[in-house]
Amino acid sequence: MGRYDQNSKVYDKWLKEGRGQGRGRDYKPWLMVYNVPSHGRSHRVYSHTSERVVHCLSDLELSVFLQLEWSESVIDIREQFPLSLDSTLEIADRIGAKHPAIRGEKMMLTTDFLATVSDPNSPFLAIQVKPSSELLKPRVREIVALEQAFWQASDVPFQVLTENSLNLIKVENIKWLHPGMTNDVVTDAQQELAEFWKATLNQNCDSNLIRLASKIDKQRANQGGTSLSELRLLFATRLAKFDMSIPFFENRACDVVFKCNLAP
Questions:
Q1: Any idea where the TnsA endonuclease C-terminal domain is (predicted)?
Q2: Could you give the CA distance from residue 98 to residue 92 in angstroms, rounded to a whole number?
Q3: CATH 3.40.1350.10, the chain: domain bounds
Q4: Which run of H or of E encompasses 79?
Q5: Exposed, middle or buried: residue 173 (CB in 10 Å: 0-12, 13-18, 19+)?
Q6: Are 52 and 25 in contact (CB under 8 A)?
């Protein structure tokens, strides 16, 4: 864990490194996991959407990232996005807020996520992630208000998400699917696999998916876990979907819906 120093010399160095700049695979976050003190677990996780490793500074940030990653309307994710220091200083003065500083140096504010979405009328969404307990603190609310004013001036929608904003069951389901997500074109082999499982599930509609997968492994003399891995791939590539509001292992065969262009 690096020392939590932020000052003009550090900022000049980070700017030269290209931090806070670029998009997609070329973007570099302003803050990385080794630049901030740990208040829990931090994560570096690959983004299939942005095609690079994303830096999440807490479990809660990881949960928000996974929901953004799964959303089909999100086309890019930029985390730890820096806000212009000149702008936030001006806004702080205008709204009467005390600007954050570290050891007397005015601090560059960051927004946890800036998502690019497929809405031409509102192509960006700024998100700050906070535990609900933090929002009870007047100083935290003052800083969030400063951040919100920045995005309002930029005409970008701004949200504050807490653990209460998330469907944690859905997050756990996405976490299970995430390693199998891909930007690659669906192959003929995957289409054939989907058609096999569509027919199999239709014939076993009331079966629990986990127990059915184990049964199919035995019928096909496969190594244990093979069928479950196949289903996971189909869900991750969106050739099929299950009810994400309940844990995957509680879903039944009849809860699964396949893409309509598959053979019956």
A1: 169-244
A2: 6
A3: 8-166
A4: strand 74-82
A5: buried
A6: yes
Per-residue pLDDT tens over the stretch 86-98: 999 999 999 999 9
CA 156 – CA 93 distance, rounded (Å): 21
pTM confidence score = 0.91
Q: Please give the CATH topology (third level) of the domain spanning 170-258.
A: Arc Repressor Mutant, subunit A (1.10.10)
What pLDDT band is residue 4 in, cutting at 50, 70 and 90? low
Alpha-carbon distance 112 to 114, whole Å?
7
Backbone dihedral angles phi then psi of residue 114, each to the nearest 5 degrees: -120, 105
Residue 39: pLDDT band with limits 50, 70, 90: low
Q: Are the CB atoms for 137 and 126 separated by under 8 Å?
A: no
Fold assignment, 8-166: Trna Endonuclease; Chain: A, domain 1 (3.40.1350)
